[in-house]
């Protein structure tokens, strides 16, 4: 809604939510006035909405990471992979979160956060009789080498948060 001076006084979002913007001019992006000062009502509302969306996205990521942990533990305990990891790398934990998974034609490649301290790189061949390739990487090395985009950093932060929440035995 625009008043006689051309000032936007009410702003309706695409989802139908209508709000009072306290004199925000039309044609400028929501949350800003012509004089450069922020329109507090609009910007605080938009900020809260964006924070709520970020919280929902983070919660969805945490749920996905927890599901991947449960599925990984069920699958790997049944096929003996956990015993192999324990035997080769002396790592025995139920605190494993899949950070990255690439299902390729000849092999599956996993990067897994273990106990919030290190990352396990696993390559499982689909060819019969080929032993899996296992490699433990420090968290710092993983961040510097493999974790260069925002999605990877978010997954790592979420997995570390879940790992910190889990009780230690």
SS summary, helix count: 4
Poorly predicted residue ranges = 23-28
The average pLDDT value, as a whole number, equals 80
- End-to-end Cα distance, whole Å, is 61 Å
Strand content: 25-35%
Q: Which class of secondary structure composition applies to the elements?
A: alpha+beta
Q: Quick one: overall form?
A: globular
Share of helical residues? 40-55%
Number of strand segments: 6
**Mind telling me the C-alpha Rg?**
24 Å
| Number of spatially distinct domains | 2
Order of helices and strands: EEHHEEEEHH
Main sheet makeup: 4 strands, antiparallel
Strand order of the largest sheet: 3-4-5-6
How are the secondary structure elements laid out?
Elements: E1 7-12, E2 18-25, H1 40-79, H2 81-89, E3 96-103, E4 107-114, E5 118-125, E6 133-138, H3 139-145, H4 150-165
Antiparallel strand pairs: 1-2, 3-4, 4-5, 5-6
Helix pairs in contact: 1-4
Describe this structure in words.
The protein is globular and about 55 Å long. The chain has helices spanning 40-79, 81-89, 139-145, 150-165, and strands spanning 7-12, 18-25, 96-103, 107-114, 118-125, 133-138. The strands form two sheets. The protein has a four-stranded antiparallel beta sheet with strand order 3-4-5-6. Strands 1-2 form a two-stranded antiparallel sheet. Helix 1 (40-79) packs across helix 4 (150-165). It is built from four helices and six strands; from the N terminus they run E-E-H-H-E-E-E-E-H-H. It has two domains: 7-50, no CATH class; 56-165, no CATH class. The chain starts with 6 loop residues before the first strand and ends with a helix. The protein is an alpha+beta fold and 169 residues long.
């Amino acid at each position: 809604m625009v008043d006689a001076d051309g000032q936007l006084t009410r702003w309706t979002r695409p989802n139908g939510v209508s709000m009072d913007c306290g004199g925000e001019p039309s044609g400028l992006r929501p949350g800003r006035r012509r004089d450069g000062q922020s329109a507090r009502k609009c910007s605080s509302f938009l900020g809260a909405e964006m924070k709520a969306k970020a919280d929902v996205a983070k919660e969805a990521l945490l749920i996905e990471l927890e599901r991947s942990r449960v599925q990984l533990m069920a699958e790997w305990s049944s096929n003996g992979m956990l015993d192999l990891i324990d035997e080769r790398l002396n790592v025995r934990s139920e605190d494993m979160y899949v950070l990255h998974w690439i299902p390729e034609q000849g092999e599956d490649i996993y990067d897994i956060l273990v106990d919030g301290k290190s990352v396990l790189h696993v390559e499982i061949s689909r060819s019969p009789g080929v032993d899996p390739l296992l490699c433990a990487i420090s968290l710092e090395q993983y961040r510097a080498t493999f974790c260069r985009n925002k999605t990877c950093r978010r997954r790592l932060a979420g997995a570390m948060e879940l790992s910190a929440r889990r009780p230690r035995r």
